[in-house]
Automatic annotation (TrEMBL):
Belongs to the AB hydrolase superfamily. Epoxide hydrolase family. It comes from Neurospora tetraspora. Residues 53-347 form the AB hydrolase-1 domain. This is Alpha/Beta hydrolase protein. The keyword Hydrolase applies. One of its GO terms (molecular function) is hydrolase activity. It holds the Pfam family Abhydrolase_1. InterPro entries: AB_hydrolase_1, AB_hydrolase_fold, Epox_hydrolase-like.
Amino acid sequence: MSSTPDFPPKLTPHDPRVLSKTATINGKKYHYLISAPPPPTGGGDAASQPRGTVLLIHGWPDLSFAWRYQVPFLVSLGLRVIVPDLPGFGRSDSPQELTAYSYKSVTRDLLELVESEVPGGRQQIEKEGGIIVGGHDWGGAVAWRFALWFPDLTRAVFSVCTPFWAPRAGEFVPLKQMVEKVLPNFRYQLQLSGPEFEAQVKGEEKIRQFLSGVYGAKGPNGEPVFTTEKGCLFENLPKMGKSPLLDEKEMDYYVKEVAGNDGGSMRGGVNWYRTSQVNFEEERELLKQLEKRGKGEKIVEPPALFVQATKDAALPPAMAEGMERFFEKKLMRREVEASHWALWEQPVKVNQAIAEFLGGVLAEGDAKL
């Protein structure tokens, strides 16, 4: 995406426009990026505060740097932007216990992280009307859950690629059974949740091969490194060329950051695929809270945007059918012609959708100031 007045240049590795920081939240180290509009020349007052706070949440296999096209754009809208590496990724911790990766645990951590970074903490967040929460892939799932656990602290919520699914009552359904009966496009998760992937893909060389392939590279005869049917095709790792979605410096950054976690293992990241039962058990409490709120099916209370990637093999459009029924306010839906990596393949259209959505959210907030 070329730079224009409306779309500032994307972030580069170690970009001076963002600060790279760490914080320990509930015993876990989180690495995160933060950026905010510069104060007006000559100093400012309360009126010069950011128009709000955005929390951006990435997925797998990814980093805070996933949002490199979106962070400068959101800052240009007058927003403070906080972008963490989730547990298991980048410079954040990779705990052994699976509860550290659950929706309940991570949403609580991220709320406390934002409170620690916003001057005035919870009081200022409440004054702003809450946090604008956005996510992609696993980050989309976390964003939706953030809105369920903390509706009064969520000003708005948006997800790119990841549709909303409601917490489930009844009996726990194991991943294998879910794949066989309902979600064949999640078959790859059976491999990722087992021991084979983390045993095979470790160290900088293999991580580079894997990331290149996942981010669009192919072998000389069009061989893929990853399919939703099988997961990683280990025999194709050495065949991968260069990713069409990342330049050389970006790929070097990704490899160093991913391989720098947990001694060159990707164990922490794939722990997210091992959390289905933990999430199910913990969300019994959430279901009780939702019932007490008396909203019926309309359990997502804040304004919401869903950006569907039409060529996403892992999260195909069919998964999003009928999700509108869960939203108290009208769900804004937009489409981009892209694969799972819509943030990078269609950054202008994604940013336009977010800007259109936030236009109403920010106008309402500005009117209250």
